[in-house]
Specification:
- It is a single chain.
- The protein is α/β, with parallel strands linked by helices and 329 residues long.
- It is 42% helix and 16% strand.
- A 6-stranded parallel beta sheet has the order 2-1-3-4-5-11, with helices on both faces. A 6-stranded mixed beta sheet has the order 7-6-8-9-10-12, sandwiched between helices.
- Helix 7 (123-132) links the parallel strand 3 (112-115) and strand 4.
- The radius of gyration is 24 Å and the shape is elongated.
Length: 329
């Protein structure tokens, strides 16, 4: 290939690796030779030479939640510019599966891992990664003080939502939750309780609903089995909000008039439902970008102290809330 382009092997190698050190005319000549000969760059061999795979492992707990698709898009937007690709896996909230996935990613030679740790993750995982010298960034859930973290101010988002509902006259506010307990879960629950207590409201109305969207809709009746029926519902995430919206519609309850509903995460579906969903935006794509930047910085300088990048939330007010009203089942 170098002979066909009439350049040295070193120059041809620079073109293949997209080096800026090669002039445009030479680059075009080498690329034309590549196409003529059908040359395919052996990335595996290059990895052995450079001791880098230019791959990033990303492990999340749920591939069906649109939040994680937006998070991944943010990660890819940064690693792509760095000439790297993502190897994606799902830990399914299972610690054993997570351990297996991490081990396999190490076997595939990933340069580092961005991990949303499964509930129940212990310190042994972080100790093992440190022994392997495998850079790690925690995303969304902060388990270890000894690893980088990219996340969002969950408690601040709860304060924003409760403050907004309070301004509409709501005092009986339920918090609908689901899923296992992990740091992000606890931060939201604690944030809700603190925000409610700051207004002198009862913070005990925490309602656990199923994990699946259809089952959430069927569990809407749980909201109206409380000691005092809520006039507003704040949701752990938008998946719950969408499920409850369907269940409330089936019960003939008008969202925004009979009952106010607030989501959390503000994924793209929030604009698609009617009435449009008021939601606390965590900007998952931006969190993903931060996680990727932390990992790239760690790869460039492994001696950096652990860092945290925690984004503020933004409440996006739409149509799903109105003045406080008494709801009848």
């Amino acid at each position: 290939m170098a002979r066909r382009a009439n350049v040295s092997r070193a120059t041809a190698s620079l073109v293949i690796r997209n080096s800026p050190l090669v002039g445009e005319a030479t680059r075009q000549r080498v690329q034309a030779a590549i196409e003529e000969l059908g040359y395919v760059y052996n990335l595996g061999a290059a990895r052995l030479r450079a001791e880098r795979s230019h791959t990033v492992g990303v492990i999340v707990p749920n591939l069906t939640n649109p939040f994680f698709a937006e998070l991944l898009a943010g990660i890819e937007s940064v690693v792509d510019v760095a000439g790297m690709v993502v190897l994606l896996a799902n830990n399914a909230e299972l610690v054993d599966r997570q351990n297996t996935v991490v081990r396999r990613m190490r076997e595939h030679g990933v340069d580092g891992v961005i991990l949303c740790p499964a509930a129940g993750t212990g310190t042994d995982l972080f100790e093992r990664l440190a022994e392997w010298n495998l850079p790690l960034v925690q995303v969304l859930r902060h388990f270890s003080l000894h690893a980088d973290y990219a996340g969002v101010d969950y408690a601040g988002g709860m304060r924003q939502a409760v403050e907004y509902l309070s301004s509409l006259g709501h005092e009986r506010i339920a918090f609908a939750v689901h899923g296992p307990v992990h740091p992000a879960y606890q931060e939201r629950v604690d944030g809700f309780r603190e925000a409610m207590s700051a207004h002198g409201f009862d913070a005990s109305m925490i309602v656990r609903v199923p994990d699946q969207l259809a089952q959430i809709a069927e569990a809407t009746h749980l909201l109206f089995e409380q000691a005092a029926e809520p006039t507003a519902v704040l949701c752990f995430n938008d998946v719950i909000a969408l499920g409850l919206a369907a269940g409330l519609y089936d019960r003939g309850i008008a969202i925004g008039r009979d009952l106010s509903l607030v989501g959390f995460d503000d994924v793209t579906d929030a604009e698609a439902v009617r009435p449009r969903l008021t939601s606390v935006s965590t900007m998952p794509a931006a969190i993903g970008e931060n996680a990727a930047r932390l990992l790239l910085d760690r790869l460039a300088d492994p001696a950096l102290p652990p860092r945290r990048m925690v984004r503020p939330t933004v409440l996006h007010v739409r149509q799903s809330c109105g003045p406080a009203a008494v709801v009848t089942a």
